[in-house]
Amino acid sequence: MKNALFLFFSVASLTALAFEVKAEEKTIQSAKHFASKGMAHAELFPGLTNLCDIESEIRDLSKRKRNSASGKKKKSGKSHSSGIPATKVFDNLYYVGTGGVSSWVIETSDGLILIDALNTVRQAKEYIEKGMLALGLNPADTKYLIIGHEHGDHYGGQAHFVSNYKTKVVMSDVAWSRMENNKLTVFSSRWGPMPKRDITIKDGGTISLGDTQVQVYETPGHTPGTISLIFPVFDNGKKHMVSLWGGTGLNYGPDLARIQSYTDAASRFGNITKAQGVDVFLSNHPTRDGSREKFKLMAEHSKDQPHPFVQGQDAVAKAYDMLASCTQAQVLRIKQQKK
């Protein structure tokens, strides 16, 4: 009888162990499956591929000290900040960013909407303001500044427009609250001052100016307060719809809940862009959305050729599928590591 019971429990234990091993193998395979699913679109969006890297540790920028030597080193170098001149991309959309961080201007019938303000007041003057003037735009017409998320490389130059042109600053409530309650975890000694709460935009809200409406959606993940945008642009009068993903990288370590929120937001926003026929994908870093390469093509673009920035609705859908799949792979990888 004892031998029979021993045999029974031994078989049961081995069976349970086998199920556990299979479950772990399934999790690993699932992580690889989602990473492969995302990488299927790597040729279209090479700037997003590092999100699919499930072999390397996820970097955690919150471990950097506020006055780190690396931050000071970047301040003295200009190679990453140069290289893209102010450019008219569509009839009503202009690029006035640096080589590393984007800043976009939407021209409306009643003034300008600026998206992101770069790292510092100096950059706001040198790139945004001078860029506007070079393109025939008046910086004093800048009515709104929409900031995609609460990192200083996007809000650092805001004080120049607020002080000189009374520009209204738009952010999500989460972003404003994190700033006000000192909840930010990423800092750099070179960033300009944080803005003071101005316009708080809700999920699904709009910023309207003249003949243009910019739709705003909460897309947490890169930061808890990230927002993404949808708005119309025109190429020689032909209408296209832009989606601007408000924050791309993973830079806070293996935070399971936060990365899962990224996956959910990318999936949801991707569905919204599909419903609205979005055919242009942009982000707030030119290396992420391929803008650097597309700017080179703009010089050769003629009215008879496809616009370099118009990827098409199918391609845009693949961008958000890639964002969701790659981050889902990271979620599954983290779950496996925690076992």
Give a brief outline of the structure:
With 339 residues, this protein is of the alpha/beta class.
Explain what this protein looks like in three dimensions.
- The chain has 339 residues and is α/β, with parallel strands linked by helices.
- It has 9 helices and 12 strands.
- A 7-stranded mixed beta sheet has the order 1-2-3-4-5-6-7.
- Helix 1 runs antiparallel to helix 9 and helix 7 packs antiparallel against helix 9.
- The longest helix is centred in the first third of the chain and has 38 residues.
- The two termini are 36 Å apart.
- About 9% of the residues have low confidence.
Helix content: 25-40%
In this structure, how is the largest beta sheet organized?
Answer: 7 strands, mixed
Instruction: Spell the H/E element sequence.
Output: HHEEEEHEHHEHEEEEEHEHH
- Class derived from helix and strand content: alpha/beta
- Count of separate DSSP helical elements: 9
**What is the general shape?**
globular
Main-sheet strand order equals 1-2-3-4-5-6-7
Q: What is the rounded Rg?
A: 23 Å
What is the total tally of β strands?
12
Residue windows where pLDDT falls under 50 for at least 5 positions: 5-9, 14-21, 66-81
Mean pLDDT: 89
Assembly state (oligomeric): single chain
